[in-house]
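Structure in, sequence out. Go:
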């Protein structure tokens, strides 16, 4: 049951701090919490609660001390304000070259201020920062290619989203998305049973046209482990069938894992660092368990970035590489 303006008091160390029942500093970890959040259509109550959410400045400062390392601090300091990154950003171009859309301005006025003030910021500042971090940057990294110093606003906005998430200032849809990963290890509510059923269904559905077609599940020592985007079992199961037909025609020795099959990460978009780790660890565990020679990932750029490029660091893999070589 939802109550408008319903606030609980959550204890942080010796402090009590008003928190919304939906908008708060605690990620979604249970199906019940997820359904409650989903029931708040368009986040009406969620955003009302956010307008009262207090910033835990001590926690924000502690997070900065622990996670804001020399690379980001140096980038913030050495920016020459030359504006060469401006034209690289499509938000700047699509908004009549509004100076407030220049990448360096966007990051200096948000993350730069948080670092300068050592976390001493208020609700209004965080609301505005959230709007910029999700509404005015996609973390595409393009500006970093144009900056003569290689200052990458995409990396910094990704980090800033993490700071916002830790304080509860995250868009309603993104909190739902990260909750999905925490509960289902998928960006949508697809259970392992749903996934396995869908694979079997697609194999049966097509085996008449393609004799011998199968979607092998949890086969050890295969040449290829294939992982997907949850939208495939959820909305486009024929995509799975098409991949299976290709592997079948090519005579590949392949498999899909029953657990750890999802490569996307809305947790990455949300800035939920722990959610990112949990998600990617499930895929790496599947690699360790089934020992394939390599992983092939479905068509999805953000999923590849999450599972192959960023994932090893979230999982603490010092090699910076996935447990087996991974191909798009
Ligand atoms: S191009 Fe680099 S140095 Fe110049 S304003 Fe942009 S971020 Fe700063
Ligand atoms: S990373 Fe963000 S600021 Fe930089 S070009 Fe992409 S959208 Fe613009």
């Amino acid at each position: 049951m939802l109550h408008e303006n319903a606030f609980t008091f959550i204890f942080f160390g010796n402090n009590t701090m008003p928190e919304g029942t939906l908008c708060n500093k605690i990620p979604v970890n249970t199906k019940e919490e997820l359904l409650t959040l989903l029931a708040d259509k368009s986040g009406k109550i969620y955003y009302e609660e956010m307008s009262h959410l207090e910033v835990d400045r001590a926690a924000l400062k502690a997070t900065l001390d622990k996670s804001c390392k020399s690379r980001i601090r140096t980038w913030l300091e050495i920016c020459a304000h030359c504006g060469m990154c401006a034209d690289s950003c499509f938000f700047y171009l699509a908004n009549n070259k509004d100076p407030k859309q220049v990448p360096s301005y966007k990051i200096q006025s948000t993350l730069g201020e948080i670092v300068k003030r050592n976390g001493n910021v208020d609700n209004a500042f965080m609301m505005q920062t959230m709007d910029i971090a999700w509404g005015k940057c996609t973390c595409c990294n393009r500006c970093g290619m144009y900056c003569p110093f290689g200052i990458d606003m995409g990396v910094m906005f990704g980090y800033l989203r993490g700071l916002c998430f830790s304080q509860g200032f995250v868009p309603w849809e993104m909190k739902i998305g990260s909750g999905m990963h925490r509960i289902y290890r998928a960006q949508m509510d697809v259970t392992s049973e749903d996934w396995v059923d869908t694979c079997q269904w697609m194999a049966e559905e097509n085996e008449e046209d393609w004799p011998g077609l199968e979607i092998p599940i949890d086969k050890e020592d295969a040449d290829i482990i294939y992982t997907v985007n949850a939208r495939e079992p959820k909305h486009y199961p024929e995509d799975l069938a098409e991949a299976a037909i290709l592997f079948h025609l090519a005579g590949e020795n392949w498999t899909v894992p029953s657990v750890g099959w999802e490569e996307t990460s809305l947790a990455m978009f949300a800035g939920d660092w722990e959610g990112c780790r949990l998600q990617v660890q499930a895929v790496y565990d599947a690699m360790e368990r089934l020992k394939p020679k390599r992983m092939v990932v479905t068509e999805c750029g953000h999923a590849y970035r999450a599972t192959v490029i960023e994932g090893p660091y979230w999982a603490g893999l010092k090699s910076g590489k996935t447990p087996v070589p991974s191909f798009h």
